[in-house]
Amino acid sequence: MNYHTLGPAAGSGRSRDQHPVCDWDSLERGNRVEVRFIDSFPYTAYVDERDDDGHLLWLIENGTGSRRLFLHDDPVTLYLI
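-> structure tokens emitted (81 positions)
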């Protein structure tokens, strides 16, 4: 699957009443998420891999194809879109 060419621009798919994903162990490979950091623009990414307990998560950024590792304790909020 070519993740970085799929889906709309960041922020266009999330509704205002959607809640953040708290349990990352519920995410599956290929899920599209909106990534939000404090003082940063949101962007869309795709779940590439995660560990069994949902503490580590690899995301592939939509558009650039950059792969980033996140820890559940990082100051990031994810929304399933």
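The beta strands are 32-37, 43-50, 56-61, 67-71, 76-80.
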